[in-house]
Amino acid sequence: MKGLGGGPKVLLVHSSSNKPSGGGSGSPWMGRRRLWLFVFLACFACVSLASLLSAARDASSAVGARRRATGSASGARLAVSAGARRAAAAKGDEAAGPGLPAYVFDALVQYAAVGGNTSGSMPAADVRAIAAALKRRAPCNLLVFGLGGETPLWRALNHGGRTVFLDENQWYVSHLEGRHPGLEAYDVAYTTTVREFPDLLEAARAARAAECRPVQNLLFSDCRLAINDLPNQLYDVAWDVILVDGPRGYTASSPGRMSAIFTAGVLARARKEEGAATDVLVHDYEREVERACSREFLCEENRVPASSTRSLAHFVIRGGRAVRRDAFCGRAAAATDTAAQ
User: Fold this and answer.
1) Residue 301: its pLDDT value, please?
2) What pLDDT does 49 receive?
3) Is 299 helix (H, G, I), strand (E, B) or coil?
């Protein structure tokens, strides 16, 4: 058909005719695209949240493993070597070594001794006696049975060494760990009580050449007085100083310190270095359980009267190959030999 006037033909096309079918803003295709985008974002959020939760669980597991697992972060800390201590001592300069300068050490002891008059604190004479033993050995490997008001002091005086605390109260261990970051402490499940003391002592005497012998692997011990549930790596440490100031022993139903004293005696004698000695200090020595168990497992011949007080006994226990394997004390060994003849 020709246009008017015979001009060229004109074709008019509406712009909407160029849009593909189904491409409108409200079309099903666009709805599906938004749905897939929403699903993708939701999946991404879930994966991110799962990663964060996994990281949190890993961190929590690491904290728990620090206290109990062998080879944990606390166990990975190397024990203080005797060679390093001897090298520092040979210089004759206390301040040059890894321990505290002498004047700082003495100031801490003086401050603690002055505050020892408060209720529940250790007597000043006992604080000074323990500090004197630490001053001779620090920095060293220090094991303390019991947590209390003096806990920060013992840790500070052994600056540069390794200090480990053991206590029967799991809540108190966690509480002090929170207040003193870096504190190495473990809870111990004691299975004995003060009222069992006479029977336990008699049984240990009868088995001192067998399951309750003075040199043994405590981790696998069958002796009722042996503490065998500590982190494994603690049994391999050469302890230079052991302080027994726990667990509680004030009532017949409390754990008492029979196991702590027995275990301290075995740990000291188990040292493999020839001539190595461990200072073992027992607090509340005026009480029957502490006095009787100390005489049985630490021995009067090893007590140092000059550095002891009425309520604190200081023993020096030697390890190595010369240690008797069938008796704790010389008198007990002699009595056994006489009875056998």
Assistant:
1) 96
2) 58
3) coil
Tally the C-alpha atoms within 13 A of residue 330's C-alpha that lie toward its C-beta: 6
Distance from C-alpha of 31 to C-alpha of 23, rounded to nearest angstrom: 11
Burial pattern 236-263, b for ≥16 Cβ within 10 A else e, equals ebbbbbbbbbbbbbeeeebbbbbbbbbb
State both tokens at 58.
Answer: 């890993």
**Quick check: 284 and 261 in contact, CB under 8 A?**
no
Q: How far apart are CA 230 and CA 190, in angstroms?
A: 11
What residues pair up with 282 in beta bridges, in sequence order? 244, 313
Give every CB contact of residue 73 below 8 A, 6+ residues apart in sequence: 62, 65, 66
- Rounded distance between C-alpha atoms, residue 151 and residue 325, angstroms: 34
> What's the gap between Cα 185 and its chain centre?
3
**Tally of CB atoms within 10 A around 124:** 17
Of the candidates 199, 154, 227, the one whose C-alpha atom is nearest the C-alpha of residue 289 is 199
Q: Say if strands 241-244 and 184-187 run parallel, antiparallel, or are unpaired.
A: unpaired
Q: Are 268 and 242 in contact (CB under 8 A)?
A: yes
pTM: 0.73
Alpha-carbon distance of 85 to 137, in angstroms, equals 8
Mean pLDDT of 192-211: 95
Residues with Cβ within 8 Å of residue 292, at least 6 apart in sequence: 197, 201
Return the number of other C-beta atoms located less than 10 Å from residue 280's C-beta: 27
Compute φ and ψ for 293, nearest 5 degrees. Answer: -70, -35
Structure-block tokens of residue 288: 């029957």
